[in-house]
Each structure stands twice: as C-alpha cells, then as structure tokens.
C-alpha cells in the first residue's frame, strides 16, 4: 500500500480538496473555500496547510468568526445545500464566536464544516493561553460547546483518526435528512503531527446527494386523503428549494387547483404571480393564506418544520387533516400529521402519478384567487410611497421602503434579511419573481446575519444583484463582513432602516402588557445628552464601501440606481418609522403574558391571551 507523509491538517486540506459533487450544473468541488481567522491555536497547523493548497482550496480572511460562518452558511443555502465552505479559528474566543453561527446552521439544517483549534492533546504546556480549565474533567475545552449545536462532533486526538472521521463528516454534510454543521476539533499539537496516510484516501471522489423514495403505503394513504378533501392547501417550505422541486410544485398546484402558501424558508418556491399562489402563511403571513388555512380541510406541508410562526403556535390549522411530505422523519409526524417521508420532488411527482384526473372544485380555487386578489390590492396600497396608511409628513414605513426597493429592482435580484421587523414585512410583502430571489434567516432569527449572509449569497450568485435589508440594531451587532465584501470584490447593496433601536421587540414588549423599556434608544439609560446619533453612511464609508444617507422615501429611488451602478458594496441609510408595521395579515403568536403587572392594560391583554390559547390543541 502506497502512503504519503503529511501533517494531520495537510491531510485534512488534501482530503477536502479531493471531494466533488455531481449536480445539474456538472461536477464541482464540494468545498468552495475556507474562511479563516488565525490565532496561536491554528496558524501554525492548518494555516500552513491551507497556504500550500490555495490553487485547489482558496482561503478567505474573515473579520469576525461568527460573521465568516454566517457567510459560509448563506453560501450553502444559496447553493441548495449542494456546495459549502469550511471555517477555521483558534481555540478560545475564536472558537466560541462560531458557536452562535453553528446553532443557526443546526436550526436551519444547513451544512458548514467547522475546524476550531483546541488545547494540546499532550497536555504538556497546560494551561495554555485561552484554555478553559474544568477542575473535574481535563478533557473538557470550550469546544465542547459545539456538541449540542453540531450534527456530528469529533475531537481529533491522533492524526490517523481523520481517516475514519472525515468520511462521516462529508456524509453528514450531504445527508438530506441529517444535514447540518459538522465540527472537527483540532488540538494544536496534533495539527502539526505527521502520519503516513494511505494515498488511496486522497483519491478524487464524486458524491451525489441521495433522494429518499416515498413508501407506497404512505403514498396511497396521502392520495386517499387528498381525493376525499374539498379544500386542500399546500404549504411550501425550504425543502422544496433543496429538492429542486419548485417547477414540479408549480405544475402540481396548477393542474389540481390547490392553492399554495409559503413559509419564510419556502418563499419563492412559487412566484408571486402564479395562479395558485396565496402568499405567506402564519404570524407574518398574508390574510389570503391565513384565511384559506382556517377554512381548509386538508393541509399538505412540503419540506417545512412547521415552527410556531407558521402554525400560529399550533392554533392556525390544528383542526385540519395534515400530511407532512419531508425528507426528515423527525418532521413528518409533527402536529399529529400523516407521514409522507421522502424527497419533495419525488413525492410531488408520485402524488401526481396517483391522483390521475382528480382535481379540486373550481369554487375553492376561485375563492383562493379572490383572496389573493384582495391581498394584491392591499399590497399596492401599503407599499406605495403615498400609502393611505401613512400620515402626511411622517417617517417612511418598512413597507414603503420594500415597495420602493422592489419598484427599482430587477426580477433577478436576491433580497437578504434576518431578524427584527423586516423578515415579517418581507415574508408578507416581497414579491419573488425568480427562484432563489429571497434569502431569509428566520429559523434562528439571528441578528447580525444580514451583512455576512449577503456576502455569502453574492459569492454563490456573483451575477445577480444582492440587496441586504437590515435594521440599525442588526447592523450595529455585526457589520464587519462589509469590509470582507470590499476586500474580496463581492459587491452587495445594503439598505439600513434606522428606527433608532430594537423596534420589533419594543412592539412585542407593548403587546404583552409592558411599557417601552431598554429597546428604543430613547427608552434606554443614557447620559443627559441622550443616545448617540449614529451616521451609518459614514461608518460604512470607513469600512471601504460607497455610501449615502437619504432624507426621505422620495430620494431612495435615485440612491438605489446609484447603488446598482457602483462597482463595490454600497450602503444606503434612511430613518424609518419605529412603530408602524403592516396591520393586515398575520395570525396569533404565543408569547407569555405576565399574570401580574402594574400596567393598566395588562388585565385586558392577559384575558385576550388566555382566549387565544383555547384554540390550541392542548
């Protein structure tokens, strides 16, 4: 057996660069590169290995460990989980900074390979700089924080252990059901240790993501349920995108006259002008989708976790017959659903083959069309510059900003958002015209994802304009990858909606019977001069971006045109209304209300809360 002598990290890099995937676009490397921030726990080991392999596995320098992982995650999502990146950090704060992003990837079922440095396996120099000491267990390090937020975790204590661990890592990253973050913790001395590895271990290997076939009995049961339904509704989730099932879903909906609502992750699976499209569903949903959900007798959920925002905390359609088509068995039985375990594209095609000439009554489809028409009229009004819901001379609303961005955009644009008010407004109001045109991180609702996520999307889709919509709070939390976008030449457009605080949570605070406190800047503890007036345009300029501040909504269109013509990242800021959101659409969401409060409105709010809970199944 032929062998090659390499350090452990040289072997990791060589192995990763030998892994390829077959997709509709052909055969490509699985790993598009590695984001890295070096420290004493990884610069000498994997740092050297990456430097020697730039032609096959390029390294990108991040500015924040959390941010660089967000970018890697966004890249994987934009590639429908077929291509991805790795991220490496030192031990200590570098590693723990990645834990939040790992949790985000875990919640959203997205692949990313994390390679944090670790303590010395020999323990000779213990305690080393940045080493956490557990007085009862010397094997514990801060990297154990990755265990609950990783789909697969291993600490490599000997160089030969990667021969077993790396194939498992790749299998996990490409598994449609178990997909998520993988963490290989790399002690810094083991990184530099050499071993005679079998040459065969590094042969080029081409993978193909397997498709889970639907069980015949489950399929027949689902067909019987649909044939006996009078008012079925489809809920499209992110799994529709990952299974490349958008086209078959659109054809299925049209053929059988079944209206389609969408989750945040599923948005764009059906374009907004499709005849069966009824918009977003749930807490941040349209009145069209939610009205139909209340009236439907059967719900076919495809590729969705059905979290509380979609199910209205289990109160929106808990009394309906539910079928769950999903690659994850864990998800197929949620909400007492009938399981249809399998690939979304195969499952829809199988249903199509079995339903034959059956279709839903014209009356139900016409009702869906009428609801969608009413919602479209509402959209036109709420997003207009001179919206009837906005007082003259008042600050622009989120909806007006979204409408102006859409009116001055292209069908190929990709909008990126994450936490706060914007994902709700975008879920309801953004009109997606092309597949992949909507990128939201709302599973973990992680503030600070937006700028870094926009960079990752642009790296995956360099020929499409990427527009990041972000609130001032999220921007302040994590903006450093804006500098990375400048450094790498991946232009994004960021529109910062400055509502002077955490306005989304301030509204939630008020809705649960509490007075405004510590959310809007004016309600926070401050010196006599008050909170700072932040100049976001100047800040973005200091990071290397082109930028400007616009005084009102009327100036936004021209600014957007300037941004589109810019050759590098461009930031536009404007002050918006911190209180107004689109009043129509949506449904109840359970957030606990204090049973004892000094607020005079609390008793009424608590009574309404208890009444809403009666609509839950238990």
Automatic annotation (TrEMBL):
The keyword Zinc does not apply. Residues 46-131 form the Thiamine pyrophosphate enzyme N-terminal TPP-binding domain. InterPro entries: DHS-like_NAD/FAD-binding_dom (IPR029035), Myo_inos_IolD (IPR030817), THDP-binding (IPR029061), Thiamin_PyroP_enz_cen_dom (IPR012000), Thiamin_PyroP_enz_TPP-bd_dom (IPR012001), TPP-bd_CS (IPR000399), TPP_enz (IPR045229), TPP_enzyme_TPP-bd (IPR011766). Residues 219-350 form the Thiamine pyrophosphate enzyme central domain. GO terms for biological process: inositol catabolic process; isoleucine biosynthetic process; L-valine biosynthetic process. NCBIfam families: myo_inos_iolD. Belongs to the TPP enzyme family. This is 3D-(3,5/4)-trihydroxycyclohexane-1,2-dione hydrolase.
């Amino acid at each position: 057996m032929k062998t090659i002598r390499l350090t452990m990290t040289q072997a990791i890099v060589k192995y990763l660069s030998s892994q390829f995937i077959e997709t509709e676009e052909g055969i490509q490397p699985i790993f598009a590169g590695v984001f890295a921030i070096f420290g004493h726990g990884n610069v000498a080991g994997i740092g050297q290995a990456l430097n020697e392999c730039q032609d096959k596995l390029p390294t990108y320098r991040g500015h924040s460990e959390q941010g660089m992982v967000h970018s890697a995650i966004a890249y994987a999502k934009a590639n429908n989980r077929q291509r991805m990146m790795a991220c490496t950090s030192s031990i200590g704060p570098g590693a723990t900074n990645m834990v939040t992003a790992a949790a985000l990837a875990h919640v959203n079922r997205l692949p990313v390979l994390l390679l944090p440095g670790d303590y010395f396996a020999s323990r000779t120099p213990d305690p080393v700089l940045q080493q956490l000491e557990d007085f009862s267990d010397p094997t514990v390090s801060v990297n154990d924080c990755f265990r609950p937020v990783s789909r697969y975790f291993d600490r490599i204590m000997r160089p030969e252990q990667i021969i077993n661990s790396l194939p498992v890592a790749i299998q996990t990253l490409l598994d449609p059901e178990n997909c998520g973050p993988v963490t290989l913790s790399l002690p810094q001395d083991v990184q530099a240790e050499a071993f005679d590895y079998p040459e065969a271990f590094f042969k080029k290997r081409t993978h193909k993501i397997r498709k889970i076939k639907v069980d015949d009995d489950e399929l027949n049961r689902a067909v019987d349920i649909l044939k006996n339904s009078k008012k079925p509704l489809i809920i499209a989730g992110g799994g529709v995108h990952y299974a490349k099932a958008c086209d078959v879903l659109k054809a299925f909906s049209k053929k059988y006259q079944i209206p389609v609502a969408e989750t945040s992750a599923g948005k764009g699976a059906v374009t907004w002008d499709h005849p069966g499209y009824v918009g977003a569903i749930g807490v941040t949903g349209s009145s069209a989708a939610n009205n139909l959900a209340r009236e439907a007798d059967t719900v076919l959920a495809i590729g969705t976790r059905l979290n509380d925002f979609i199910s209205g905390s289990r109160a929106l359609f808990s009394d309906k017959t539910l079928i769950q088509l999903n690659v994850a068995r864990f998800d197929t039985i949620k909400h007492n659903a009938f399981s249809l375990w399998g690939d979304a594209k195969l499952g829809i095609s199988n249903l199509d083959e079995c339903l034959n000439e059956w279709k839903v009554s014209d009356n139900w489809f016409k009702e869906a069309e009428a609801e969608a028409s009413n919602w479209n009229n509402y959209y036109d009004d709420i997003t207009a510059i001179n919206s009837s819901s906005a007082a003259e001379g008042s600050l622009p609303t989120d909806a007006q900003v979204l409408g102006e961005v859409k009116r001055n955009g292209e069908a190929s644009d990709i909008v990126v958002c994450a936490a706060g008010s914007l994902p709700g407004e975008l879920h309801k109001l953004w009109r997606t015209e092309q597949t992949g045109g909507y990128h939201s991180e709302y599973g973990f609702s992680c503030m600070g994802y937006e700028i870094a996520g926009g960079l990752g999307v642009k790296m995956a889709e360099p020929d499409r304009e990427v527009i990041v919509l972000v609130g001032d709070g999220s921007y302040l939390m994590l903006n450093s990858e804006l500098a990375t976008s400048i450094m790498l030449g991946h232009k994004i457009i960021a529109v910062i909606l400055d509502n002077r605080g955490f306005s989304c949570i301030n509204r939630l605070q008020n809705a649960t019977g509490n007075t405004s406190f510590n959310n809007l800047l004016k309600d926070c503890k401050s010196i006599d001069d008050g909170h700072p007036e932040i100049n976001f345009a100047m800040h973005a300029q200091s990071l290397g971006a082109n930028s400007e501040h616009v005084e009102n909504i009327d100036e936004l269109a021209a600014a957007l045109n300037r941004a589109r013509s810019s050759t590098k990242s461009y930031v536009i800021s404007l002050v918006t209304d911190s209180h107004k959101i689109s009043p129509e659409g949506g449904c109840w969401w359970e957030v606990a209300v204090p049973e004892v409060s000094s607020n005079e409105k609390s008793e009424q709010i608590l009574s309404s809360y208890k009444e809403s809970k009666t609509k839950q199944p238990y």
